[in-house]
Amino acid sequence: xxxIPDLGPPPQRIAADVEQVRRLVAxxxxxxxxxxxxxxxxxxxxxxxxxxxxxMSVRLPSAAEYALAVDKEHRWLPTxxxxxxxxxxxxxxxxxxxxxxxxxxxxxxxxxxxxARPDRIADPVRFALDLAEFLAALQGVETAGGPQPxxxxxxxxxxxxxxxxxxxxxxxxxxxxxxxxLVREIxxxxxxxxxxxxxxxxxxxxxxxxxxxxxxxxxxxxDFGTCGVGDPACDLTIAWTLLTADGRQAFRERLSVDDATWxxxxxxxxxxxxxxxxxxxxxxxxxxxxxxxQRVLGEIFSEYAAGTATTSSP
Length: 314
Fold this sequence. Notes:
It contains ten helices and ten strands.
């Protein structure tokens, strides 16, 4: 029997709206019942997010699988916040099912900032170093009792082999739109790169949308739904998906990432980007996302080729 976890079918998402949130808050937290509720633009996939007044947010998981993170975040975010050099979400209250909504939900302190993107970053190297400082601090938190990879975080922090079939399906879907031979070479390199087995804390979804910037600087990290303890290589994905070449080098040096961990991080970036490519290439509504994923694939290919050339030179 295989010891590779089964990801199972995609989550069955449900919708949530402003009126439902108002009813939930009024029934369970009447002290905030008079505060205005407004949807947050581009609130993400795992949760429906709403403004609650000017200083709080309400997050409602969009599927049962995502709701598994609610208790985890309330348990661990206060601990992680004490070690973080950047603000992270502060849970203020945990709600229960009601008003036709079936899962636990949360109220958080609102954190100001805009999702990171290249044109919002004043100094790419400084941004990369600030992010590396955050991850270094996170990895330094005591791991005893921390959440191991599992369904609650889609097995982030575990073996990349969990996503082996996803990569093959993406290649089949994309056909000749990508260099399948090169993809398989990079993927094999990632699968063969051994982890030292020492548990460390990881965020699990260090992506542009979860990194908030203001005045060109990194000012907060949000959405810890996939956090846990295990192999932190999954947090290196951002090196290819957002950082510049100079920023990537500074990021790696600050974290003292060895070759094996870097190869696994590249594998996480490859899996995520291939999945995005295969899910968007035929849908004109996602043309921008597909173009961005193609750009990231190019970054992964060129960085891997440069590293291979360096290690093979006399």
